Each structure stands twice: as structure tokens, then as C-alpha cells.
Amino acid sequence: MSSSTFEQDGQSLYVTASGEGPPVVLIHGLSGSRGWWRYNIPALRGKARVYSLELSGYGHARRQRSLSVRDMAALVSAWMRAENLRGVTLVGHSMGGHISMHVAALVPDRVQNLVLVGASGLLRAQAYRTALHLPRAALIGRKRFLARVLTDAARAGPRTLWRNAVDLLNDSVQDSLPLIRARTLIVWGERDVLVPLALGQLLHEALPGSRLEVIERAGHIVMVDAPQRFNRVLLDFIAQTAPEETEPEQTASEPRGQTEVRHD
């Protein structure tokens, strides 16, 4: 495993990489860190080169001022260009999914597969009302992971969390959606109270050819609540990538029909 910091114009990303194979990039959500992928990275790195990002203001990059979701998307896109990553499977959870949609629109030639996990891009609410759901969300999720959630939130600090919460609730992905060319998988926890399943269904309708997977009895942090099912769905989706799609100069395949699959 290797780690590095990417810096541009005083902004930074902390990047951890492991494994060999096609690139898979993981972006955490609000109050998150690379630790939120702890149950997923081991399954992925046997088949891919896994890059786990920690955004400005979070994790190892917590001393940096946090950025807006659009500025973070621009920074992630710049990092992809600097690393010359192509054929990327971009996986974003919650705010990370929100950012990932903007990234997929900014560098469509680099993002081959887009995986949106409880993404916040269509969420519209007042920040304090969303915060009221946090205790219930913690009770629904895996209890032993609660310590990690609280630790990462404390490391980020209330100012960073509030600033990013307000920003993402005021930002829309509607202008980015038509620019996304990547094969898209949408994964949602059936019991998500922070970003309700209805918003996942709206994303599914807004992205022609996307695939919606609903994981029953899982909450907002679905990759932690049901890691084996999440890993299976993600790896199956990546494996279905047609060989010709791995060449950036070739035309992307025709979008597949919309499907919804529930996992219990």
C-alpha cells in the first residue's frame, strides 16, 4: 500500500493506493474517511488498483480548508489527469457520489464506470432538518461502526461539516447529468433515512441505461451495513464492462435497459 498527497493551488487530496489492475477510485461522504471502505478495499484490490481519496478537510487532509462539492470535483479531476488514469471505475458515497457525478461530467473520457452509493445530488432540505435524522441513521446502521463515524466527524470538525452540508444541499447535479457518459450503477440502502431511496429512484430515471440495486435492511452507509452484498454487486458490475470499452478512443457501447434489483 502506498500513500501520497496531491496538491494544486493550495488545495490537497490524500490518496492511498493498493492492488493491481484497472483503476477503482473511492470517494467518501460527509464526515467520512478512507476508513469507511475498510470492508470493501480487500475485496477490490485483488482485481483492481484501488485508490481511496480523503478530501480536503477530512481524514489525513483534515488540516486543509474544506472545498465546495464543485471545487472538490475539479480537484479530483485534476488528480486523474495528473495520474493519467483512464478506464476509471469511480465509486462515491453520499457527498462523494454527488462529487462523482460532477467528476464524470468534467472528465467523461476518463470515467468508464460510475457507481453512486446513496448519493446526495438531488437532496433538497435545510441542513438542520437533515441533521435531525442523524441519530436515527446511526441506530439503523452497523453499531460497531458508530465509533468510526463519530471519530471521523470529530476530526473534520463542526465547521467543515456544516459548511459542506449547506453547500451540497444548495448544489444541484442537474446540469452535470446530461454530460455523464459512463456506465452507471446506483446502489441504495432500503432503510436510508438521510438520503431516501426515492432519490435513488429519481437518479435512476434521470440517467438512461443506469442500473439500480436496492439492498434490503441496509441504511445510509450501505457498504458497511451489507459489505458482502455490496462487494458482490460492485464486482459483478465491473466485470460486465465490455472489453472494447476499456479503450478510451473507441465509442462507448449503447446504454443498457433500466433495471432494478433488490438484494436481501
Q: Explain this structure to me?
A:
The chain is built from ten helices and nine strands. The chain has a nine-stranded mixed beta sheet, sandwiched between helices. With 264 residues, it is α/β, with parallel strands linked by helices. It has a single domain, classed as Alpha/Beta hydrolase fold, catalytic domain (Rossmann fold), CATH 3.40.50.1820. The longest helix has 15 residues.
Question: What Rg is obtained from the alpha carbons, in whole angstroms?
Answer: 17 Å
Q: Level of helix content?
A: 25-40%
What is the element string, with H for helices and E for strands?
Answer: EEEHEHEHEHHHHEHEHHE
Profile the largest sheet.
Answer: 9 strands, mixed
Mean pLDDT, nearest integer?
86
- Report the sheet-strand fraction: 15-25%
Shape: globular
The number of distinct β-strands equals 9
Distance between the termini: 33 Å
Structural class: alpha/beta
The figure for the number of domains is 1
Strand order of the largest sheet: 1-2-4-3-5-6-7-8-9
* CATH evolutionary superfamily: Alpha/Beta hydrolase fold, catalytic domain
Within the CATH hierarchy, at the fold level, what is the topology? Rossmann fold
Number of alpha- plus pi-helical segments: 10
CATH architecture classification: 3-Layer(aba) Sandwich
Classified by CATH, the class is Alpha Beta
Which regions have little confidence, pLDDT < 50, spanning 5+ residues? Answer: 244-260
